[in-house]
Amino acid sequence: MNSRGYGHLMAWPVVLVWMGVLYFLSSQPSLPQALAFDFGDKIAHAVAFGILACFLSFARLPYTLGSIRRVLLVSVFVFAYGVSDEFHQSFVPGRDASTSDVIADGIGGFVAALLTVWLQRRPW
Fold first, then answer.
1. Please, which contacts does 19-24 make with residues 24 or more away whose CB atoms are closer than 8 Å?
2. 62 has which bridge partners?
3. More confident position, 39 or 22
4. Where exactly are the structural domains of the chain?
5. For residue 105, what are the contacts with CB-CB under 8 A and spacing of at least 6?
6. In the chain, how long is the greatest CA-to-CA distance?
7. How far is Cα 81 from Cα 100, in angstroms, rounded to an integer?
8. Which of 15, 31, 97, 98 is most buried, by the most CB atoms less than 10 A from its CB?
């Protein structure tokens, strides 16, 4: 199969598995404290959704989109998944939806998308 101009097709199962992990974690009534300092929860959100953005960046998205469009596409997808994650969490006993978590998800996704697109463009 000619993969010229595309990322790795095998990245999609990894994306779906990671989305499943995030869904599973959101389904838990409580989680241990991620990081034991102020805003530790927000950093954990940014890292978790940043990982999703990295996986998405290596998925089969056409490189012809250009760097800016790839970053925007990945960022919008990660942000939307963050919104759906918080909505799902609002139905889990002991959990609630948080706008600040969605913001942390979006920031983590955007930064990771920028970083991975930049790394993909580097001539190694």
1. 19/52, 19/81, 22/48, 22/49, 22/52, 22/81, 22/85, 23/85, 23/88
2. 6
3. 22
4. 11-16+41-121
5. 45, 46, 48, 49, 78, 79, 81, 82, 85
6. 49
7. 14
8. 15
